[in-house]
Amino acid sequence: VNGGAGAGAGGRRSVNKKNRIPLAALIGCSLLKAIDLGLTNAAMTYINYPAKTLLKSSRVFFTMITGIVVNGKKYKLTDYVVVGFLVTGLAVFLRAESS
């Protein structure tokens, strides 16, 4: 008898070998994430703290765009509206900062 969500005999999880991610892909993604973090921090040294906070909070926009382009994901209309307000507010704030 299967003991629940993936638990096999002795409490061990069963592993489906077809769905395993290759180690090289995991290492590559980890390296890209580390490079991303380093470049983000380097870029953030050129702007002030409020702009940093706003830019970091706008990551949802880039996540949403990536989901649409790469995965073909669909979002609710309210999600698009909220992200639109976020991007508009960010643009207005950064424009006011530069003036």
Keywords:
mainly alpha; flat; 99 residues
Give a verbal description of the structure:
The structure is a single chain. The chain has 99 residues and is mainly alpha-helical. Helix content is 67%, strand content 0%. It is built from four helices and no strands. It has helices at 23-44, 49-57, 59-71, 77-98. The radius of gyration is 21 Å and the shape is flat. It starts with 22 loop residues before the first helix and ends with a helix. The model has no long low-confidence stretch (mean pLDDT 80).
Give the secondary structure arrangement, pairings included.
Blueprint: H1 23-44, H2 49-57, H3 59-71, H4 77-98
Give the fraction of residues assigned to helices. Answer: 55-70%
Major sheet attributes: none
If helices are DSSP runs of H or I spanning 4 or more residues, what is the number of helices? 4
Distance between the termini: 69 Å
Helix-strand category: mainly alpha
Q: Give the amount of beta strand, in percent.
A: under 5%
Poorly predicted runs are none
Tell me the number of strands: 0
**CA-based shape:** flat
What is the string of helix and strand elements? HHHH
Oligomer: single chain
Round the Cα radius of gyration to an integer and report it. Answer: 21 Å
Let me know the average pLDDT. Answer: 80
Care to give the gist of this entry?
This protein is an all-alpha fold and 99 residues long. It has four helices and no strands. The chain is flat.
